[in-house]
Design a protein that fits this description.
The structure is a single chain. With 43 residues, the protein is mostly helical. It starts with a helix and ends with a helix. It comes from Salinibacillus xinjiangensis.
Length: 43
Amino acid sequence: MGEQKNSKLNRQAKQPYGEPMKGSKKVKNRNHSRQKKGASHDL
């Protein structure tokens, strides 16, 4: 799983600077999903 995450990060870094919003959106979505999981665990 770790390797897959690394490959995704590398892909984002390779993306052209013309569309940096897409990369940031993807990261935000990933962080959101992680936060949701953590919240459910607390409950």
